[in-house]
Every structure is written in C-alpha cells, then in structure tokens.
Amino acid sequence: MTHSDLLQIAKTYGDPVYVYDSEKIISQFNRLTNAFNDVKHLKLNYAAKALSNITILRLMNSLGSGLDTVSIQEVQLGLLAGFKPESIIFTPNGVSLEEIEEAAALGVRINIDNLSVLEQFGSKHPDVPVCIRINPHVMAGGNTKISVGHIDSKFGISIHQIPHLLRIVDLTKMNINGIHMHTGSDILDIGVFLYASEILFETAKNFKDLDFIDFGSGFKVPYKEGDIETNVEELGKKLSSRFNTFCKEYGKELTLAFEPGKFLVSEAGFFLAKVNVVKQTTSTVFASIDSGFNHLIRPMFYGATHQIINLSNPKGRERYYSVVGYICETDTFASNKRINEITEGDILCFRNAGAYCFTMASNYNSRFRPPEVLWHQDKAILIRERETFDDLIRNQIDSKDLFIPIHKKKEASVVK
Ligand SMILES: *Cc1c(COP(=O)(O)O)cnc(C)c1O
Predict the structure, then answer these.
(1) What distance in angstroms lies between residue 216's CA and the mean position of ligand 1's atoms?
(2) Is the CB of 179 under 6 A from ligand 1?
(3) Does ligand 1 lie within 6 Å of residue 263's CB atom?
(4) Which domains does the chain possess?
(5) InterPro entries this protein is in (predicted)?
(6) Quick check: 411 pLDDT over 80?
(7) Distance from Cα 71 to the centre of ligand 1, integer Å
(8) Predicted TM-score (pTM) of this structure
(9) How far is CA 14 from CA 83, 230, 263, 306, in A?
C-alpha cells in the first residue's frame, strides 16, 4: 500500500478515515507462528478488543486464529464472524456470574479471574471445564494503565491464593483445563515473560487435566522507524524449548497459547485526517485537523506516540508542528514534531492506528465516527460506513411534549 493509495482512499471515502492493510496483519500472524515453530501445538487467539470490525475478525478466522474476548458482546461478534465456539476464549474481568454462564451456554472456553466467581461457577457447573487466570505479580508493561500483572492489579487470581483455589477445585470437583496470565501491554523485556512463565509452569503442576497454557500477550511493536520492539523470535526459541521440557515432565503435549492484539493489528492501521487550519501563535505552529480524541484517544489517554506523516507533501521541508484536534478541550495528538511542511487541506497520516484506535472511538462533541477501509489484494474495501446524523440520534428518546419552549409559553400568556 503506497502513499498514493492512501490519498486515493481519503479522496474516495472522505476524511477522517481508518485504513487497514490485510497484508501486514497476515505477515504479523505468520511471524509469530513461525517464532514458535518448535512447539507442536500452538494457538494464537486474537484479542478482539484491539480492532473488532467483523471483516477483520473474518480475516483472523481465515488465518486459523482463535479469538480472545472480554465481553459477551465480543463473544457474539466472534460467533457472527464464523469462529467456532471452541475457538473463542472468554477472558473477562469482574463481570457477573450470569455473563459467564451465558458465554458457557454458547459453548466458548471460559477463563475465570477471581475466586468468588470460580466457586459459584464450579458449584453450579462442575462439568464445564474452566481456565484460570493467574496473577503472577510481575511488574511489566509500558505504563501503569496497561500493566495488569502487578501486586495492586485487579486482574487475575493471586499466586498467593493457590491453596484456596485448590480447595475450591477439590470441593466442587470442577475441571481446570487451562492456566492463563496476561501481565500487561508493551512488554519489551522477554526476561519478564520467561520469569512469569516459570510461575505459570509451577502453578500448572497442581492440575492433572490441563489442555493448554496461555501466556497472554503484551508484545511491544515499533511506533516509528527503527523503534525498539519485543524480540518475538528470541522469545519463541527460549519459551518453546522451556515449554517442551515442561510438557515432558507433565506427561502430555499441551497447547501453547497467546492472545495478541496490538502485535497483529497495530502497524496495519493508518488514520487519515485533513488539516483544516494552520495557526501560528507566538510560540507554536498548530495544525488543526478534522478529527480529535473522539476518534483517536491514545495520545490523550495514554500519552501514546503516533508518528504523523504529511501525505500531501512528503518531500516538503520539515518544520515543527503541534497537531491538534477539534474537540473543545485540550486535544493534542503531537507536540512540536518535525513534519513535512503543512498547508491547509493537506492529508496527514497517523501510523500504528490499527489497535485500540477505532474501538475506542466515541461520539463526543456529537461527531460521527469515521469509516473503516480494508486494503486487500491491491483493492480498497469499505468495511464500515461513516456514521450519519441518524446514528447519533438513534437511541435517544425525544420527549417533545415534556418541555414547552419559553417563546411559546410567552405567546400563550399574551393570548390570554
Ligand atoms: C487486551 C488483552 C490482550 C491483548 O493485549 P495486546 O497488548 O494488545 O496484545 C490479551 N489478553 C487479554 C486478556 C487482554 O485483556
């Protein structure tokens, strides 16, 4: 996909617009698969929350991926996209027992992350196998909002509670078929992964009927040219070898599972927006675009960096710009970044816009959410339409007779 392909997409579908390159998604999937060549049974379960457009889910299904889901609605989306129930794992946090029962009734794999629900679920449905989410208490991840395995985290069952967990399993006679962890996002140090994996292996020895061990996700991807990223090849070599040794000790060929989101889709995504205004103040040159954190919240929410390219003037002289959105509060995408000279009307491209971008978009400021386009086999395919005013108003109930406009009240009193 070239710059001119992207510009053509902005022309055809308008701006702002999200674009996803299927080839990049496929190559990332193959890269991770190849890194774990030495393992007999590998299962990648794509984390749907990163990018949940149904056509993207269908693409993942066609690659042989499973699906990691965190809400009953994601489970339903996955089934609608053609995933078999047994290819879907439900890994929620803090949801009701009823929601977990609903997922179990749909036949998907269940992952439970607290003792309270484990005990209730096990007592009622001892015949349904369950995976348990362990919190190994390892500090990992890019920042505190995305680190989920540490001691103060709300996720998982603490390794210090294993004795209690074992009592519940024993008393309910439930079947534990998997052990799981997910310690955070943007984990760079594979040593952290390997260390946490040892804790999982140690935990796994307590259960006789395991089918899989799920090592979660959190691979860091590059956010700009030459940026650091998780060395998945090295992780693959080291963890595969350790995993195979464990399986020998355990006496069964288990499945090694991962649930990558960002790794599969982040770099495949591009967000295109037009510059409405270039404003020079005493200290800064602002480029204001026809979008805001309602469409791409990561910079404002996480302090995430998205590289920005001026597609309309790629050879122009580089100058410093602050790229800002139209939301009526602080809405900064990037501060004082070198970008090829910007003129009003230029199309800017935000990179790494595949993961946690569209799925976090909202209608704040009563704006429409943008369309999504898949670039597949040298063709642009619209996979979500731009919203319209009807979408904004759809579920609102306009109680027309509840309040009389003040000018009508006045008219009424004059008549009297
Ligand atoms: C969000 C999430 C993932 C995906 O994390 P990435 O950093 O996007 O790869 C995997 N597993 C669980 C349980 C998650 O909640």
Answers:
(1) 7
(2) no
(3) yes
(4) 36-264 (3.20.20.10), 269-393 (2.40.37.10)
(5) Ala_racemase/Decarboxylase_C, DAP_deCOOHase_LysA, De-COase2_C, De-COase2_N, De-COase2_pyr-phos_BS, Orn/DAP/Arg_de-COase, PLP-binding_barrel
(6) no
(7) 13
(8) 0.94
(9) 32, 35, 28, 21
